[in-house]
Structure formats: structure tokens, C-alpha cells
Amino acid sequence: MYTIVLGAASIVSSLFDRRGYFAHRCARAWSHLILKTTGVRVAVEGLDRIAPGTTYVFVSNHQSIYDTPVIFASLPYQLRIIAKESLARFPVLGWHLKRGGHLFVDRRHPDRAGILRRWRALVSEGLSLIIYAEGTRSADGHVARFKAGSFLLAIQAGLPIVPVAVIGTRQVMPKGRLRTEPAEVTLVVHDPIQPPATTAPTVHDAKALADRAHEIVAAAVERRQFAAV
After folding, report:
1. Pairwise pLDDT comparison (117 vs 47), residue with the higher score
2. Residue 41 sits in a domain of what CATH number?
3. pLDDT tens per residue, range 89-140
4. Angle 2-13/21-37 helices, nearest 10 degrees?
């Protein structure tokens, strides 16, 4: 019931709130409710490492579709997702997400200049971004190498990167399974990484930043999720 009510309120709000502020509040409320009703308990660590009111690029691993409600419920920021273009073609959902300010990327033919313009527009509105830098959900829970494209844009926009480790959502609903299981999940927010100060960043710069963020997130996941296995 709350999915229908909050979904309808969010869609209607997108008709007059083009920045998507109210829609995001609906998404946060829905996230809290879906976690509670499916028995998912979330412990958040490291919020004191980031400053309220600052615009960040949050970079996370991706284990489950539950990662998004965990992140939305736990991070007190106006967040917008960077997602693959195919999601924008979903009836109603894609239209709604576009109107809410979420950013879609055609991975085969990325318009980097256009994406950068959208990034800067979002920053000017005080919005932060969330990226699943592996590009897809992990099949085994281990963190795959981060793709460098979004990191290049972050450098160009001068935005700090915040590595975020989501630990335990694979126990709730792993890739390929439709049912959920109650579980305890941990979200670890790491110290922000300032992008290199350069007017002409290279792919090498982006890969170095991606590898640094990956090392931090992967170490947390391996230590907390697999050490006792």
C-alpha cells in the first residue's frame, strides 16, 4: 500500500517540482518502510566524516537491488542516481526518474559534454550523486573493478568522491533471486577523496582515482563480509 501511495505522490509531484526534492523525500520514506517491513536492519558508520550541505559523488559497490533503499534511507542528502540509459525506457518509472533529475548514461555512446553539463546543473542545485561504479550487481558479493568514466567527470566537475561500502545486502536479495530474507546490513561512509586539481584530466587520472576508491570499498567489504566465512 505504501508503495502505491508514495509512488503516486512522487509521480504527481514531478509535475510541479522539476528539481525532484519532494520525490526524493518520498523515496527516502519508501526506503525506510521497505527496509522495516522486510526485516532489514541497517547500521551506518562514518556519517561524521562528511559535511552537511556539501555536494558529493558517493561511489558504492553494488550487491543487490536493496543497495538503493539502504543508501537513500541512510544518507541525509538529496541524492540523484547515475544509471544506464535502458532504465529510462521503462514505462512511468523512466519518465518519473528523468523528471526527478536522475542522470542516464548511454554506455555505448556516452555524451560526456552533455553529462558534465547535467552534473554541474545538479551541483548548482545542491544535489549529490550516487554511482554504482562496478556498472552492474556483483554475482558473488566481491567488488569488481570500478569503471573510470564517472571518475573522469567528477574530476572535471571538481567534486569530492566519497567511497561507500554496502555490506550484507546480498543476504537480503542477491542477484538472480526474487524473494527477500531478513538481515543485518552495514553502510560504511569513508573519508572524502578530493579529485586532482587539473584543467585537463586524463583517462589515467580517472583510472587512478577509480582504483583508489575501489581499494577502499573492496577492503571494507572483504574484511567485514568475507573475513568470517
Report:
1. 47
2. 3.40.1130.10
3. 655 555 566 666 777 776 666 666 667 777 677 777 778 899 999 988 898 8
4. 170
Range of the domain at 161: 2-226
Q: Tell me the residue type at 101.
A: G
String of b and e for 131-151 (b: at least 16 CB within 10 Å)?
A: bbbbeebbeebebbebbbbbb
Per-residue HEC secondary structure of 107-174 comes to CCCCCHHHHHHHHHHHHHCCCEEEEECCCCCCCCCCCCCCCCHHHHHHHHHCCCEEEEEEECHHHHCC
Residue 13 and residue 17: Cα distance in Å, rounded?
Answer: 6
Half-sphere exposure at residue 71, Cβ-oriented, CA atoms within 13 angstroms:
28
The set of cell numbers assigned to 160 is: 569530492
pLDDT digits over 10-30, tens only? 666 666 666 677 777 878 888
Query: Distance of CA 45 to CAs 25, 50, 113, 212, Å?
Result: 22, 11, 35, 20
Domain count for the chain: 1
Helices (H), the chain: 2-13, 21-37, 67-74, 93-99, 112-124, 149-157, 169-172, 203-221
Is the confidence at residue 200, as pLDDT, over 70? yes
Q: Do the beta carbons of residue 131 and residue 209 sit within 8 Å?
A: no
The C-alpha cell of 136 is what? Answer: 552492474
